[in-house]
Amino acid sequence: MSKLVISAVSLFLSLGGVAVAQTATVVVPGEVRTYVLEQKSPSVTFEGDVAIGTALPDTVEIHTVPDQPDYGYVVVNKKRVLVNPKTRAVIEVIE
């Protein structure tokens, strides 16, 4: 019985951590957003939803933002998307 309770508590705590991680807000510097909006990049097609937290596959080329190593961008399905270049995870969908 105690093993079942411990397992249930562990599951609850691990799911709670996931929920907190998904609600974290990233504040993107204005100059990063401006730079990305000014770039003329072709759009790539991505199957599925492009949402915050989605990891883009290695086949999608992420463009760098000068002097901003924590930010990259790509145009996916005709939407400009800010990406963490280290994890390839979507930070923000701009348009």
Count of β-strands: 5
Quick one: biggest sheet? 5 strands, mixed
Let me know the average pLDDT. Answer: 80
Q: What structural class results from the helix and strand content?
A: alpha+beta
Q: How many angstroms separate the termini?
A: 52 Å
Please describe the topology of this protein.
Blueprint: H1 2-22, H2 30-38, E1 43-44, E2 63-64, E3 72-76, E4 79-83, E5 90-93
Parallel strand pairs: 1-3
Antiparallel strand pairs: 2-3, 3-4, 4-5
What does the model show?
- Helix content is 32%, strand content 19%.
- With 95 residues, it is α+β, with helices and mostly antiparallel strands.
- Strands 1, 2, 3, 4 and 5 form a 5-stranded mixed beta sheet that branches.
- It starts with a helix and ends with a strand.
List keywords for this structure.
95 residues; alpha+beta; 2 helices; 5 strands; 19% strand
Q: TL;DR?
A:
With 95 residues, the protein is an alpha+beta fold.
